[in-house]
Design goal:
The chain contains 18 helices and 39 strands. With 833 residues, the protein is α+β, with helices and mostly antiparallel strands. It has a six-stranded mixed beta sheet. A six-stranded parallel beta sheet has the order 17-15-19-21-22-24, sandwiched between helices. Helix 7 packs parallel to helix 11. 48% of the residues are buried.
Length: 833
């Protein structure tokens, strides 16, 4: 089958209009949000009375904890409000500020809980007055209190214990989250911020203050001092401890000395930034490392030395996989050509350590702002040591990486991290795969990042994993690897689950654990670095090729695939690369081992599946990949015409004749501390019948009232859609509790009848709007225009014996599409597949 270059869907939109949903599609009478105001007054009186007593007790306790001569210039009260349901910020945020003096700092537990701070003490007195009136009210039909209280289930003071909840390890680095709200000026906390700086300086504590987000990071501080700070400096709403680590369960050397190969590179290939433990320049990688000095390392470390993992290294292995792919896995040639150059960005000198996130972020910014480097792809396989708790908000670290991806249009490939100490090594074969259901199998930050790409692992190692009498793989090569991790969000806890919201994005080969037989007692043990593990380059000159397993290996392999795409199509944007990889992915089969997993649980373990290199890089005679890179303004909709070749009208096959695989990806400016609206913008797509963007007529309903019926695309009913899937991500006013995803993939097929009825013409529509929960004063701070990437693979889905190799040329001709310019000789890439 002849391979073809992808096609640029560079057609001008047919029309533009205001975006408008039609009737709910698919139709569902249960979509209406539940009423969140609770009217069980006697019980509510008891709950409020308890909340009042507990608040007063905790407030007195906090006053007693304070140091009398502490240099704190102001008292700031923060309060947790627990609501009966979703807190509708667009309806109530401003009224809570004006009526009660409360500004929101953070929404969590899917926005059913909120942390607020008192920025108007006079209005806060009204909060207490209304509570007292509610408790004493004899007739709630004629209330003498603010009815907004009825949405509150209970409340509590934000205490010292609450502030220290995420402070778990005194020896770890410390991060102070300061109170912050769109309804609050930074000057409000400036006196406390300045006094905290002074206090830390007086106690000779080194710290980094991030002016942009008003945060403190401290490499190390005594526990007793942390407790004093948490008790007295009210502007801190959370003290977090964290430590970065690499997780290799084990390794096995192949006792190979010397390097029997050399690495070469063509001109103008992309460079990948390897954010890791350094890359050893004493390996053949030296020919493709672009570092010239110690510029791209933190804390004065040498980026060309990799001493992690007892001298075997970590960044060196990651760099080799990112640059070479799997070329070292099944034997190798004397001369190997790299798919990418590498830049060593050293952030860790050992296997674990306290890293200041601000240092990492600054390093990435330095690289992004250097035009001579022109780096758009990065790998990050060093995660936090602790996993995310189930349904946690996105971490500050992931939030900052999402901001960088949006600001600089970059793509960071982040590993889910591995499981190690969490695993029951004595019973692992029996526990697989049920161990994934435990919260300790959750992702580790910052892999929950949404603008970047999260990579998990399957057990493949690019070799035939043969069964023997003494060793066998713990799981199949195409099953989730035992050490990979799952998304920490539980859809069962969501009021409005979103099946498009999944992590990891994809999974790929990371090697497999083995079961090995012990001769002396004929028992089996788990070996993480046996024959089923993956061959990688080591930094140890006396043991140059080793076997290992991990998402630290699958992640750079996907980065390598991204580099191959940019080798072939150097003008593509990073989000297009992401969309191509996801669109090519084949779902991991959910076999009988996973019968106890719901589809949602399984998808949050394997993501969109395993990418297909050939589909990423090439179309063929019977399949054409169309790429649309464009921008859209908020609350607008535009449509494009997609002509279908007329030879489909006369073929014998009637059903599932034409296959569509469509993926949309886009970057966004994230909203921190708002779990539901972290992704604040919805860009979605739909495939419609051959109808105009706007079309409507007037009619009367059964009651004789005038109404407008929309029969085009905007405001369309389900009859306008070409396929039953409808919009790729539907969110109207009744879906305000739905979290949005900036990755949307849909697959569907067209019947011969569908094609003929629409005169061989479908309409592709793109629409956008802000998250329906956001108030105007928040959306006014967000961009009004967003870039997006849409990848459409259209395939002739006839039986193989009926395929005539017509589709690619026909669809290119009738739609007047251009071939995407290629940077290298096609044969070079074909040889890599």
């Amino acid at each position: 089958m002849a391979l073809k270059p992808h096609l640029l869907f560079n057609k001008a939109p047919e029309a533009n209009a205001n975006f408008k949903y039609g009737i709910r599609y698919p139709s569902n009478s249960k979509d209406k949000e539940e009423e969140e105001e609770i009217n069980e007054y006697p019980e509510k009186v008891k709950v409020f009375e308890k909340s009042i007593r507990d608040f007063k007790h905790e407030y007195s306790k906090r006053q007693e904890e304070r140091i009398k001569d502490a240099p704190v210039p102001q008292e700031i009260i923060s309060i947790e409000l627990h609501f009966h349901g979703l807190f509708k910020a667009n309806d109530f945020e401003k009224s809570y500020l004006s009526d009660f003096g409360l500004a929101p700092l953070k929404y969590f537990d899917f926005n059913t809980k909120g942390l607020f701070t008192v920025i108007d003490k006079i209005a806060f007195k009204s909060f207490w007055l209304n509570l007292r009136n509610f408790v004493k009210c004899e007739n709630h039909n004629t209330p003498n209190y603010n009815r907004n209280l009825l949405f509150i289930e209970n409340f509590k003071l934000h205490t010292t214990t609450d502030r220290l909840q995420r402070y778990t390890q005194p020896e770890y680095a410390i991060y102070f989250e300061m109170i912050d709200s769109a309804l609050m000026d930074y000057d409000f906390i400036k006196p406390t911020t300045n006094s905290l700086k002074q206090y830390l300086n007086e106690n000779k504590i080194e710290f980094i203050f991030n002016e942009e987000i008003q945060s403190f990071e401290i490499p190390k501080v005594p526990r007793e001092l942390i407790e004093i700070i948490a008790r007295n400096f009210d502007a801190i709403h959370s003290v977090n401890s964290f430590r970065h680590t690499i997780t290799y369960p084990n390794k096995f050397g192949l006792n190979m000395k010397g390097y029997p190969f050399k690495i070469f590179a063509h001109n103008n290939i992309p460079t990948i930034g390897i954010i890791d433990t350094g890359i050893s320049s004493e390996t053949p990688l030296s020919s493709i490392i672009i570092n010239k000095d110690n510029t791209f390392a933190i804390n004065g470390m040498n980026p060309l030395v990799d001493e992690a993992d007892g001298g075997y290294g970590h960044g060196t292995s990651v760099a080799a996989l990112a640059a070479l792919g799997g070329k070292l896995s099944n034997g190798f040639e004397a001369e190997i050509y790299a798919d990418a150059m590498v830049l060593s960005m050293k952030i860790l000198g050992e296997s674990s350590g306290n890293i200041i996130n601000t240092d990492v972020l600054s390093l990435i910014k330095t690289v992004c702002e250097d035009p001579s480097l022109n780096i758009k792809l990065f790998t990050l396989t060093i995660n936090y040591e602790s996993h995310l708790e189930s349904n946690d908000n996105i971490s500050e670290y992931a939030y900052q990486l999402d901001k960088l991806a949006f600001d600089y249009d970059i793509l960071i490939f982040i590993s889910t991290a591995n499981q190690g100490s969490e695993l029951d090594w004595n019973n692992l074969d029996a526990e697989y795969p049920d161990h994934f259901k435990k919260s300790c199998s959750n992702l580790k930050s910052p892999s929950e990042s949404m603008n970047n790409m999260t990579i998990g692992a399957i057990g493949d190692n690019f070799e035939d994993q043969k069964l023997t009498n003494s060793e066998l793989p713990l799981s199949s090569a195409d099953e989730p690897a035992v050490y990979t991790r799952k998304y920490h969000l539980d859809s069962k806890r969501m009021k409005k689950p979103n099946p498009k919201l999944i992590k990891p994005d994809v999974v790929f080969a990371g090697g497999n654990f083995s079961l090995q037989r012990w001769d002396f007692n004929n028992s089996w043990i788990v070996e993480p670095a046996g024959s089923s593990a993956l061959k990688v380059l080591s930094a140890n000159k006396n043991d140059i090729i080793i076997k290992q397993t991990g998402t630290s290996l699958s992640t750079p392999l996907i980065a390598n695939l991204a580099a191959k795409i940019l080798n072939k199509y150097p003008t593509l944007k990073p989000q297009t690369v992401k969309a191509l990889i996801i669109n090519s992915s084949k779902k991991v089969s959910k076999n009988k081992k996973f019968d106890s997993f719901t589809n949602s649980e399984f998808n949050c373990l394997v993501g969109h599946g395993v990418p297909n290199s050939e589909k990423c890089l090439f179309s063929d005679e019977n399949s054409a990949t169309l790429i649309l890179e464009d921008q859209i303004n908020i609350n607008r909709c535009r449509n494009f015409t997609l002509q279908i070749p007329d030879y489909f009208n006369t073929v014998e096959q009637e059903k599932s004749l034409l296959k569509f695989e469509v993926t949309l990806c886009y970057n966004f400016k994230p909203i921190n501390n708002n779990q539901i609206a972290y992704c604040p913008v919805n860009i979605n797509f739909g495939i419609f019948k051959n109808v105009p963007l706007e079309r409507s007529h007037k009619t009367k309903d059964k009651a004789g009232r005038n109404r407008t019926v929309y029969t085009g695309i905007t405001g369309a009913s389900k009859s306008s859609f070409a396929f039953k899937e409808g919009w790729s991500q539907y969110q109207d006013g009744m879906d305000r509790s739905k979290m949005l995803s900036n990755v949307q993939k849909m697959n569907f097929t067209a019947k011969r009848e569908d094609i003929i009825n629409e005169n061989n013409c479908f309409k592709l529509a793109i629409g956008s709007h802000f998250h329906k929960i956001l108030p105007d004063f928040v959306t006014e701070t967000l961009p009004n225009e967003y870039s997006f990437s849409l990848v459409i693979r259209v395939s002739d889905n006839q039986k193989k014996s009926c395929l005539e190799g017509k589709l690619y040329n026909k669809i290119k001709l009738i739609n007047d599409l251009e071939i995407i310019p290629s940077a290298i000789i096609e044969g070079d890439l074909e040889a890599e597949l």
